[in-house]
Design brief:
This protein has three helices and no strands.
């Protein structure tokens, strides 16, 4: 037998056994028969109770294993992006371009304000705000 056919045989046996079993046998963790509803409050979830014995040991062992795996992956750099340097370079170039565009826009605004101030002074001078008018004598010679 190959491993696939064994799995298929096991699966078909499990299906037959489940079909013959009563409906309540499929629950993950059954509460012991000794515990009555009066002894335990109704708001306590029986499935949330801590595991004891082999299931509890197995759960604690596996949680330690996964934590160790996470630390080893960090240590060897497996959680780091392979091309993070390229992403960082692109982001820096994009930020530099945005900064250059913002600075160019700021310079144009400053030049426009200076030009407006110069034109305003010129208009005020031409409209008589400055005493520089030349007096022309009127003569009538006919």
């Amino acid at each position: 037998y190959s491993s696939t056919s064994r799995q298929m045989m096991t699966s078909s046996r499990e299906i037959e056994m489940q079909a013959a079993a009563p409906a309540t046998a499929g629950m993950a963790r059954n509460a012991p028969a000794e515990i009555s509803e009066e002894a335990s409050p109704s708001d306590v979830d029986v499935n949330a109770l801590p595991l004891a014995g082999w299931p509890g040991f197995k759960e604690r062992f596996l949680s330690c294993f996964w934590e160790l795996e996470e630390h080893l992956a960090d240590l060897f750099g497996l959680n780091d992006s392979k091309y993070q340097w390229a992403v960082d370079q692109y982001m820096d170039e994009r930020d530099a371009q945005v900064d250059a565009d913002d600075f160019a826009k700021f310079e144009l605004e400053q030049e426009a304000e200076m030009e407006n101030a110069r034109v305003g002074e010129e208009i005020e001078r031409l409209e008589g705000g400055e005493v520089r008018a030349v007096t022309v004598p009127l003569t009538t010679t006919a």
